# Entry
Amino acid sequence: MAVDPKVSVEGVGKSYETADGAVEALRDVSFDVASGEFVCVVGPSGSGKTTLFRLIGGLESPTTGSVRLDGDPVTAPSTDVGIVFQEYHLFPWRTVSGNVRFGLEQQDIDSEARERRTQELIDLVGLDGFEDAYPSRISGGMKQRVGIARALAVDPDLLLMDEPFGAVDARTRDMLHEEVLDIWRETGKTVLFVTHDVEEAVKLADRVVVLGTEPGTVREIVDVDLPRPRSVTDESFVAHKEEVRALIGD
# Structure
């Protein structure tokens, strides 16, 4: 018996009106994401990765086609989708705890349960001891961990991430890769991760959705059937990376 997908992108197209006429960002994009799966979306500049991210997150509506979460159309942002952006978007006047707690404050949860959930998430992302620190006093990698904890606070069905590690140095990025995989394994969340970095995609994903450009279309979906943790120097890893790079290059 077939299991319904957690996320279903069905024939999605997106066009924008400009002074020079309509610009087609995406055309007939279709793919599914299974519950608990980690899927990366890659493509060159102009392939519509961020547009697709915004459509799946309910931040914009498709011109054609549909996005569904557990079979229901995505028509607006909701607590079913936790979103992590490349820019940290933390409230500078709130502490680490205050930022993580923000989404919980919008829900009907008693203060004791809210504080307990906030501390659980701070521990999960490795920020124990930094509860009272303000964003200006912590590193970029720590800020992104706060963003991940805040996105997870309301227990979303889908964690949607748009190049979340693009603004940190290589060493911090490697550390965050391992941490996000640990969080994924521990929470069992479905993760859809947008990136321009092919090596990052192959390191993290169960499958990689490769987008072509002008307009953005699905060129191919590559299965990454490698055990974790993955070594970037392993022959099989390099072969998968070159396969994805060749698809983008074509």
Summary: The chain has a mean pLDDT of 91. The first strand starts at residue 7 and ends at 18.
